[in-house]
Design brief:
Layout lengths: L24 H13 L6 H15 L4 E6 L10 H22 L3 E6 L12 E4 L2 E4 L13 H4 L4 H22 L14 H4 L2 H22 L15 E6 L3 H6 L1 E4 L4 E4 L4 E4 L9 H8 L3 E6 L5 H11 L8 E5 L6 H14 L5 E4 L7 E2 L5 E2 L2 H18 L5 E5 L17 H4 L13 H18 L2
Parallel strand pairs: 1-2, 1-14, 2-5, 5-8, 8-9, 9-10, 10-11, 11-14
Antiparallel strand pairs: 3-4, 6-7, 12-13
The protein binds phosphoenolpyruvate (PEP) and cobalt (II) ion.
Length: 451
């Protein structure tokens, strides 16, 4: 049934933070018109399926793994960046499945993660002030007046990049690459030589042996589709409301609107004001909706958001993504967990151990420490144990590539090492081997919880 007093454009009557000021309103409108005539990137049935999977997470029967770039970049479209991120998410998921013996729901920050909230509207360098870089869907990172001016044509480029990325992801998920019989082939060369690469190869050997054993017992693997393909979902921050509105579609079968730009959309920490435009848009669409919660979130804010975004208590609709900081999680998270539990709500609770742990290195790089990331994950699990609630998932900024953006880990990357391959378009990401290392450490935590 349609949502009351809502339309894809009703957000326009609210205050919209973090949106760019386009110099040419006519050009923006023309692009919106074009986008609204293009095919949806995803289908409503997939949204229903993801919500069913998330409902299982909220019951404690599955685990959510969400990860990808902080910001995708138009320059990075190609098979390699997408495939390398996809394969590391598969590896992490296999490690966690093996550890916890529970299904892992895989959601990428991918195929649409192009818009970034910024703490300042402008940036000044050598006496020149220009608009801040807000992600490739809005402007370019290069510090020149021309490139920093918001350009609506970028919305169309974002759409076509998302479509191409999603096409590749669907091929990778369904076309044989993700077959469990090929688990050895998922490890990138630079990871293979690392301790966690070796540990993964051992796990892959065990999976091979299990499959061979089951097949020797007469189990027909050819008839088990879940061994040959994976479900992989997409997500991004629903920040650019002009883009999201233009990609909103109507599902006649249930008279509901859905965001056709990704399976799951989330609300950022800076745009989750209850009366703001972003909440207004998200309340009306049928997708799974994430909500980032920083250490300043109060229990009453969270309950009000749940009432507004999920008045019907729909299973699998909401994922609360706590991003407290390793030093704050123990104090800030439990009051939210208990308030939500006492209100009879059962959202998925997910931990983003990245955004509360960003620091600047001695040589000026925005970075994060592997140890603090792991500490926040541990704090998240501890808070849930204390409150008797279920720690349902993890949300990472990561890439499959061999970048040097986060410090620490088995590679013991220090400040000097950051300069080598620091490539992110926004926040620092875990590289392929740090991601896998973290998955093994989280697996140990999950195992020790004893499901
Ligand atoms: C992000 O996920 O990249 C982000 C900006 O997060 P948050 O809204 O939690 O700061
Ligand atoms: Co980020």
């Amino acid at each position: 049934m349609a949502v009351q007093h809502w339309s894809p454009s009703s957000w326009r009557e609210r205050k919209a933070l973090q949106l760019p000021a386009y110099p040419d309103a006519g050009a923006l409108q023309a692009v919106e018109g074009r986008l609204s005539s293009l095919p949806p990137l995803i289908f409503p049935g997939e949204i229903t399926q993801l919500k069913a999977r998330l409902a299982a997470v909220s019951r404690g029967e599955a685990f959510l793994l969400q990860g990808g770039d902080c910001a995708e970049s138009f320059d990075e479209l190609g098979q390699m960046p997408v495939e390398s991120t996809f394969r590391v998410i598969l590896q992490m998921a296999v490690v966690l499945t093996y550890a916890a013996s529970c299904p892992v729901i895989k959601v990428g920050r991918i195929a649409g993660q192009f818009a970034k909230p910024r703490s300042s509207d402008t940036e000044t360098a050598q006496g020149v002030t220009l608009p801040s870089y807000r992600g490739d869907i809005i402007n370019g990172a290069e510090f020149s007046a021309d490139v920093r001016t918001p350009d609506p044509q970028r919305l169309l480029t974002a759409y076509s990049h998302s479509a191409a990325t999603l096409n590749l992801l669907r091929a990778l998920a369904q076309g044989g690459f993700a077959d469990l019989h090929r688990v050895h082939g998922w490890t990138a060369d630079f990871v293979r030589r690392s301790p966690q690469g070796e540990r993964f190869e051992e796990l892959a050997d065990r999976i091979d042996q299990s499959l061979a054993f089951m097949e020797a017992c007469g189990f027909d693997a050819a008839k088990a589709p879940q061994l040959h393909a994976v479900e992989f979902y997409t997500s991004h921050e629903a920040l650019h409301l002009h883009y999201e509105e233009a990609l909103t579609r109507h599902d006649e079968s249930c008279d509901r609107s859905y965001g056709a730009s990704a399976h799951m959309l989330w609300l950022g920490e800076r745009t989750r004001g209850i009366e703001g435009a972003h909440v207004e848009y998200l309340r009306g669409i049928d997708n799974a909706v994430g909500v980032k919660l920083g250490p300043a979130a109060r229990p009453e804010d969270v309950l009000a958001l749940l009432d507004r975004l999920d008045p019907n208590h729909e299973p699998g609709r909401i994922v609360l993504i706590a991003r407290m900081g390793s030093d704050k999680v123990a104090d800030a998270l439990p009051p939210l967990l208990s308030a939500v539990r006492d209100a009879g709500r059962t959202p998925v609770w997910c931990c983003d151990p990245m955004h509360g742990n960003t620091v600047t290195s001695s040589n000026g790089y925005k970075t994060r420490d592997f140890g603090r990331i792991l500490d926040e994950v541990r704090g998240f699990f501890a808070a849930h144990r204390q409150e008797g609630t279920y720690p349902g998932g993890l949300h990472f900024e990561m890439t499959g590539q061999d970048v040097t953006e986060c410090r620490g880990g088995a590679q013991a990357l220090g400040d000097e090492g950051l300069a080598e391959r620091y490539r992110t378009a926004c926040d620092p990401r875990l590289n392929g081997s740090q991601s896998l290392e973290l998955a093994f450490l989280v697996a140990d935590v999950l195992r020790s919880r004893g499901r």
